[in-house]
């Protein structure tokens, strides 16, 4: 083979290799595996261009300094294994910052994030944009740790004609402040505006608690034009306010929905603030049933329903060691609630103190 022929062969092989790589990213159903943050940033750009549909992160720690914006639909970002501790994505630190520190900023629909850990941001770990009509968001088997504001934010403004975020699912996740208390009062686990038909199931929330000034936001909160959401079978431990539907005496807060089968324990008396375990505020037509609530703090009530617009409510088969109370003209039908099972509440509390694996 002459030198010219050898050069032609080498050139053809190189061109074939480049063409193969480009072809791989041109197929809309292809996945890409990444091992560092530079590859992750590039993969997200490919995702938004429609060149790939799935990103798989190899085990390791990924330090991101700018948000990962997801604008495309029908995409998945996942750790390589079912162990959420294998892949850790860290933001810009759990402290106040002039920059908006968010790891995943979701504007697309049918976006799935699973099997990884998100931690250490100055705002949210995830923001889902109802204002962009981001529907069918799915979060599964993710550890969410140490954000300076709410961990998962579903954002959206007022007004009946604006878009909503519909049919989201958050399941089998852990939300936690690992030092035992939050960094400030303006924190929460899930804070959802304009959210319709979401399911929050089988998650664990720990230490969503304020260190000073005011009570923390809720571990789970749906409000501001939200409706028909289900919060079921979650465990909420040592959080100032566990579950809230609606906010204050305002119109268009929350309609309907179900809060059922949740276990709520708050016994950390070093937390300076606490409120009721479940609160309905301007939330007509909501069902609260089959929850277990043990509160060993200064707050006297386990469940409260507040304001005249909270009507048509059913509160049934809940076991609590504190009262179930109406305030400010709210009405509800109360059926078969046990408000005095102190012994069972103490056992429930001991379970989470001495057997944390159950949490």
Q: Would you kindly provide a written description of the structure presented here, covering whatever features stand out?
A:
The protein is mainly beta and 359 residues long. 14% of the residues lie in helices and 38% in strands. The chain has a 20-stranded parallel sheet that branches. It is globular.
Describe the secondary-structure layout.
Elements (H helix, E strand, L loop, with lengths): L2 H24 L4 E4 L2 H13 L4 E4 L2 E4 L4 E3 L4 E5 L7 E4 L13 E3 L4 E11 L4 E4 L8 E10 L4 E4 L9 E2 L2 E3 L2 E3 L13 E4 L1 E2 L2 E3 L2 E3 L11 E6 L2 E2 L2 E3 L2 E3 L3 E5 L8 E2 L2 E3 L2 E4 L11 E4 L5 E3 L2 E4 L5 E6 L6 E4 L2 E2 L2 E5 L4 E4 L6 H13 L5
* N-to-C span: 70 Å
Radius of gyration over C-alpha positions, nearest whole angstrom: 23 Å
Helix content range of the residues, please? 10-25%
The share of residues in extended strands comes to: 35-45%
Overall structural class, as computed from helix and strand content, comes to mainly beta
Largest sheet: 20 strands, parallel
Query: How much is the average pLDDT?
Result: 90
Number of helices: 3
**Would you identify the regions where 5 or more consecutive residues have pLDDT less than 50?**
10-27
Total beta-strand segments: 34
Shape descriptor reads globular
Summarize the structure.
By secondary structure, this protein is mainly beta. Strand 1 (31-34), helix 2 (37-49) and strand 2 (54-57) form a beta-alpha-beta unit.
